[in-house]
Amino acid sequence: AILIFCWVYVRKYQSRRESEVISTITAIFALAVALISSALLPVDIFLVSYMKNQNGTFKDWADANVSRQIEDTVLYGYYTLYSIILFCVFLWIPFVYFYYEEKEDDDGNTCSQVKTALKYTLGFVTICAVLLLIGAFVPLDIPNKKNSTEWEKVKLLFEEFGSSHGLTALSFSISSLTVIGMLAAITYTAYGMSALPLNLIKGTTSAAYERLENTEDIEEVEQHLLRIKSKCRDGRPLSSRDRRTVQQLEERLRTLRRRERHLESIEKSWWTKFCEAIRPLKIVWGVFFIIVALLFTVSLFLSNLDKALHSAGFDSGFIILGTNLTNPLNMLLPVLQTVFPLDYILITTIVMYFIFTSMAGIRNMGIWFFWIRLYKIRRGKTRPQALLFLCMILLLIVLHTSYMIYSLAPQYVMYGSQKYLVQPMNVTTFVSKDCDADAPEVLFAFLLDQCIVTRTYLFLHKFWFFSAAYYFGNWAFIAVFLIGLIVSCCKGKKSVIEGEVDEDDSDMSDDELSVYYH
C-alpha cells in the first residue's frame, strides 16, 4: 500500500515529457523508506503497552529477557531503516541528481556523466563521514546542573541506552538530518498547514471568468502592439525604448495565449466539472483541516510551555519526564490505544496530514536555497531534479515527524498506555496508575520494570543539544504557522491554473497539461 501511494504521489507531479526511470524509482523508494520509518513509532509504543495488562501487571510471557529483546528489535529496526536513509540522502539521491544535471549538458557520453556525478557525490559522502566521526566521539555526558531525582533518572536512562560508538555515530548523523528536516518543516509544513485548508475553503476562480479576463488582456496587448508598430509605417525605425517595449509585449502576448489554451483545456475537462460538483465537500474538508491544524498548534504550544516551566533547562535539552500540562492529543491517544488499531489509524493520519500539508507548502512556495528559487513543483510538469529535491525534503520532514508527534503527545510516546502498581498510604491493596515521572526509580533500570520507556523517546533525546534545537524549532513552527494563517486569510482566491503557466515555460508544456487533464 505504501509503494502504491508513493508511486501515485510521484507520478502526479512528474513531468510527462522529461520522465526518467531511475529518478522515478529513486523518488518512490526514498519516500517509501521514510514512510516505513515513521511506522516504527506506533509499533514501538504498541509493543511496550502490550506487555502489560490494564491493571498494571505484566503479562505472563513478558519476562525481563523478552521485554529487553523486543525493545532491542525495535531499536535495530530503527537503525536499519535510518542507515538506508543515510544511503539515500548522502549517496543515491545526490548521484542520480548530478547524473541528470550532466545529462542535460552532455547527451552522448554516459561514462563522462557517471564520473562527474560521482565526483560531486563524493562531497556528500565526505559530509556523511564527518558526521559519523563526530557522532562516534562526541561526549554524551549531560552537563551537571543540579542534584534532582528527575535529573538522575535522565542520566540513568541514557546510560542504559547503550554506549556503542557505531550506533552513537549513526544516531548523531540521523539527528543532524532531523534538524534539517525541522527547518524544512518550519518552512513548508507550518505554512502548508494554513494554506491547504484555506485554499480548500476559498476555492479557485471560475475558468470561464478567467478566460473572459484573459481575452480582454490579449486584446489590450494586441492594440498596444499595433500602436507602437504604427510608428514605423513611414519607414522610420523604432527607438530602443519602443523595441524593448515590443519585445516585452510579445512575450506577454505569448504567455496570455498559453493561458488561453490552458484555460480552455481545463474548462472542458471532466476533472473540473467533478471538482465543481464536490465543492461543498472541499469546504467541509477545509474546515476540518483548519480545526486539526489549530488543535495541533494548541497541543504543541502546551507541550512546549510545559517544557519551559518544568524541564531541567537548556543544558538538558529541555527534557521532561511525563507531563504537567496536558493537551488534547496527549489525552486522546492512550484512550484510542486500548482499542486496536485506532491509535495506529490516528498516528498514520497525523503523518499523512504532515506530508500533504508539506506538499501544499512546497507547491505554493517552490524549492528555495535562501533567496534563490531553484525549482517549481507543478503537477505533471515537475523536472526529475526537482522531484528528487521534493522527495528528499519530504524524507527529512518525515524524519522530524517522530519528534513532532512526541511534542504533541509526550506521555503517549514515552509510555503508551502503560500503568504501574502503587500502594497508597494506610491502604493494604495496590492501585494502578498511568506511568509518569512520579513512578518509582526502579522504573528506569530496564530489567523487569513497572514501566518501560520506548526506544523512540530515548533515540529522540540521545543528544541534549539536538533536543534543545527541537524545542526552539517548535516555537518557530508555531510562529510561522500563525504568520502563514494571516497571509493565507488576506490572500484572495487562487487562479484555476495557479502556477501552471509562467513566462519561462515553453509551448511544449501545453501538451503536458492536455495529457494530464484528458
UniProtKB/TrEMBL annotation:
GO terms for cellular component: lysosomal membrane. GO terms for molecular function: cobalamin binding. The keyword Acetylation does not apply. The chain crosses the membrane at residues 21-41, 76-100, 120-140, 167-191, 283-302, 344-374, 386-406, 463-487. Keywords: Cobalamin, Cobalt, Coiled coil, Lysosome, Membrane, Transmembrane, Transmembrane helix, Transport. Residues 239-266 form a coiled coil. It is a multi-pass membrane protein. It is found in: Lysosome membrane. The keyword Nucleotide-binding does not apply. Pfam families: LMBR1. One of its GO terms (biological process) is protein localization to lysosome. Belongs to the LIMR family. LMBRD1 subfamily. This is Lysosomal cobalamin transport escort protein LMBD1. It comes from Charadrius vociferus.
